Amino acid sequence: MSAVDFLSLATAGVQGLHPYQPGKPIEELQRELGLSRIVKLASNENPLGSSQKGVAAAAGEIPGIHIYPDDNGFRLRNKLAERHGVAPEQLVLGSGSSDVIDMAARSFLGPGVNAVYSEHAFAMYAIYTQASGAAAKVAPALPADNPQSPHGHDLDALAARVDEKTRVVFIANPNNPTGGWLREAPLKAFIDALPSRVIVVLDEAYTEYVEEEDFPNGLRWLDDYPNLLVTRTFSKIHGLAGLRVGYGVASPELAAVVNRVRAPFNVNSAALAAAEAALDDEAFVQRSRENNRQGLAQLSSGCDELGLAWIPSVGNFLCIDMGRPAGPVFDALLREGVIVRPVANYGLPNHLRVTVGTPEENAFFLRALERVL
Amino acid sequence: MSAVDFLSLATAGVQGLHPYQPGKPIEELQRELGLSRIVKLASNENPLGSSQKGVAAAAGEIPGIHIYPDDNGFRLRNKLAERHGVAPEQLVLGSGSSDVIDMAARSFLGPGVNAVYSEHAFAMYAIYTQASGAAAKVAPALPADNPQSPHGHDLDALAARVDEKTRVVFIANPNNPTGGWLREAPLKAFIDALPSRVIVVLDEAYTEYVEEEDFPNGLRWLDDYPNLLVTRTFSKIHGLAGLRVGYGVASPELAAVVNRVRAPFNVNSAALAAAEAALDDEAFVQRSRENNRQGLAQLSSGCDELGLAWIPSVGNFLCIDMGRPAGPVFDALLREGVIVRPVANYGLPNHLRVTVGTPEENAFFLRALERVL
């Protein structure tokens, strides 16, 4: 049998995807580098762990895991609907909110149409768009010296890229990896001016961390904009990243379309139960928010002392300008036992994104950074 | 704002998908019907529960669920590779094997090409094909009175439907919901005769239950057929349906393409650990197989006594011909506290698919069926 080039048989979108780059678990890295301790500040996980209510609920599901999950996520959907004052059929449950974003892309994107998003925005928007075969129209970000939002979403530039073939606009608020955010009035005006046939995916993965007064809650706009899909996750402030659960909220009409491509049983039983319980743990959310506020202050003042610039952040991470190519700094930090996130693939080759840890982890990172620089 | 028909904006494939039908959890049904006990023999779950090694490993992961899963599934991939004598890069991990089948569809199917599968085959082949926008070429099944495999895959009919636009052939062995199976020599000859540019997705979700001598193991053919993707699941004999984990094995070249569309973190931490541990629990697999053998005999002789025909099965379920439209029988069984699976949507309107339960559950079902008929 002659060799077949399977990639040439794949869809055009898949042919253009960057191949998957496997990583190594911490334990492997630890063994390879011979380190006694590794502090991982790379994935915007919650340094306080998980809601103990969530943990207990997940553990309670384990003895029954021979049974398929409730495909409809009946209880979690109802609880979220009640919490947010929407109907259960407005919910789209996902294996993390990235799953919901993927569902939106699969529903509306394909060859011949396009998606609009910003430079430096969350990497999955580009990947889902590419996988679908749709064209990507990427708006340049605000300049680095913009006083309100350096490297932030430029709403005018985004609006200018929307044309009659645009099906989806992806917006992250706050944005990852920059940490910047969009204020209520301009974001609402942006959505208001869009043709109602353009789906707006408003990714609010980090919204629970934000304490700024002028920060919008996209869920309040659902009645006004049937074309709006707001996504949220349990991976960040709720500390359930390992279980994979998130959700989207939209008009019943839009949610019905997106739910068509939802995979059966896409949220596992432990995740459904943990998410439901975590919603009741407001104390844990509060503590996480507090730790984050203090950690952001600790990291940013530590950077100031080292003479490093950083992008003002309302997320649970800080994007720090190393003032030089960040790759070697990343490598050196790794040898010091600190894993952070290089963001060269986000068009920020001099920055490293650092997740807010516990006070002790933040100090560990700052000491390592000082030694490395 | 005028009302927008979002479905008309969706991709052609999604427009043709049948909308998602939400179900209700057992507890809801129990309350509604006022039943003290419900026996669910509807989803081919393992009536013996899960491997206790798997359960313990999953429970051990719960305290660390604020951390993302190992995206690469390093340890599970290596363990599966060792078990099956393949390289780790030949593995594709999925959130259930349906996720892997979906990935194959997303990689190779789209408008302008087609997929080939059999009538009465697993329903997701049709759904994934439709979602992609590809055409479906459905081969009629063998007739109901075929002595070897009533309602089974007709390999000649399948081969006849493969044309130059065929990208994927889906084959289930054994097939769900019929329970029939393909023997080694004819299946190998079928694959051998296919052009090497046609991907064969060989779905072996129920393979661990089969004890027939002439039953093939698709993994042994991987060296001969770089276009072969064999899928397996932990949802059935391993009893991990609630956690969502399965896998595919293919040539490194084919696996690399399919892995391109794998969602990040698609297998959660508890599932990765449970699957790894379950692979070591050969005693549980053995016990499950034994319970299944006895249960199939119990169900089929019970049907014989009731004068009902059934399709010979090597899976963990029996497809029973009610000799009349099965819908009312299904409803009546529900009121007796037994949930089974109607298969009218599989083109078998007179059949009900019944999962093999414990001896006591099987007897409970047979008594209910006798009352109902």
Describe this structure in words.
- The structure is a homodimer of 373-residue chains.
- Chain A is globular, with a radius of gyration of 21 Å.
- Chain A contains 14 helices and 13 strands.
- Chain A has 373 residues and is of the alpha/beta class.
- Chain A has 2 domains: 122 residues, Aspartate Aminotransferase, domain 1 (Alpha-Beta Complex); 225 residues, 3-Layer(aba) Sandwich (Aspartate Aminotransferase, domain 2).
- In chain A, helix 5 runs parallel beside helix 11, helix 6 packs parallel to helix 7 and helix 12 runs parallel beside helix 14.
- In chain A, strand 12 and strand 13 form a beta hairpin.
- The mean pLDDT of chain A is 95.
- The longest helix of chain A has 24 residues.
- A 7-stranded mixed β-sheet of chain A has the order 2-8-7-6-5-3-4, sandwiched between helices.
- The interface between A and B is large, with 92 and 91 residues.
